[in-house]
Design a protein that fits this description.
By secondary structure, the protein is of the alpha/beta class. The chain has one domain (4-268): Rossmann fold (3-Layer(aba) Sandwich), CATH 3.40.50. Helices cover 42% and strands 12% of the residues. It has a 5-stranded parallel β-sheet with strand order 1-2-3-7-6, sandwiched between helices. A two-stranded antiparallel sheet has the order 4-5.
């Protein structure tokens, strides 16, 4: 059973991560993928603060929607894998912490992801290797609802079901938007739940900003199917002028807007 204190700790982790992500986006001085990074903060906080055992050494996490990397970098920093000096170089000349993740296992980045749809295939390879070696290690992946337009997602989904990869969990970030606008009615969270189930996955749904709901969705275990969690989220969550505003898919924060964003987050925490 998850205690109230554990839930509070994950929620506090999410708060720190949100502030760290915004600080990185502001201090880099250029446009960054902010909206899609903020929509997955609570999911990542729950994974790194509760679900993942010894990140990288036992369980693996792959961010398939690579443009959400601000969320990943903030998680790795807040759990002590990346240093303050490292994250201060985000999107600056010579830094390896750029707009999409570059594989660096020593620093908790399990895969390179820029072109959408690739991360799930890599995760399947890792999960299959764990299964063949009879290891209990788990693999977690975050994909986007817009990313689910990629055919490679569904090719991978078929393979995972055929291989009965019960050690694989995919979380779909359903924030309703992609780079060039909103997703269609065929890619809503309700429709996506049906699609993943049709491909042979066990499917559950949750509020992607409710830590208790996310934990409950992660608890379910199955012995013969991969798991898909359809998480309803809000793009730019926590900042009023970013929420459901696709202008903040990729944009630059001014000092005034940065200060406003931090004030809103602190006020609502």
């Amino acid at each position: 059973m998850t205690s109230k204190q554990q839930i509070i700790e994950v929620e506090q982790l999410a708060l720190r991560m949100r502030k760290t992500a915004l600080k990185m986006a502001y201090e880099c001085g250029v446009a960054a993928h902010i909206g899609g990074g903020l929509s997955i903060i609570d999911i990542l906080a729950t994974l790194y603060g509760h679900a993942i055992s010894d990140p990288g050494k036992i369980d693996k996490f792959i961010l398939s929607k690579g443009h959400g990397v601000l969320g990943l970098y903030s998680a790795l920093y807040e759990v002590g894998i990346l240093t303050k000096q490292q994250i201060s170089t985000f999107q600056t000349d010579g830094s390896y912490l750029i707009a999409h993740p570059i594989m660096d296992e020593a620093n908790g980045i399990e895969s390179s992801n820029g072109s959408l749809g690739q991360g799930l295939s890599m995760a399947i390879g890792i999960a299959l290797s764990f299964k063949k070696r009879k290891l209990k290690n788990q693999v977690f992946v975050i994909v986007g609802d817009g990313e689910c337009y990629e055919g490679s997602i569904w090719e991978a989904a078929i393979t995972a079901a055929e291989q009965s990869l019960c050690n694989l969990t995919v979380i779909v970030d359903c924030n309703g938007y992609q780079n060039d606008g909103s997703v269609s009615n065929e890619m809503t969270n309700e429709k996506l739940a049906g699609k993943w189930a049709a491909f042979g996955w066990h499917v559950s749904k949750c509020d992607g900003h409710d830590v208790v709901d996310i934990i409950e969705a992660l608890k379910f275990s199955t012995s013969d199917k991969p798991k898909a969690i359809i998480a309803k989220t809000i793009k730019g969550f926590g900042v009023s002028f970013m929420e459901n505003n696709n202008d903040w898919h990729h944009n630059r924060l001014s000092e005034k807007l940065y200060n406003q964003a931090i004030q809103e987050i602190e006020k609502n925490s």
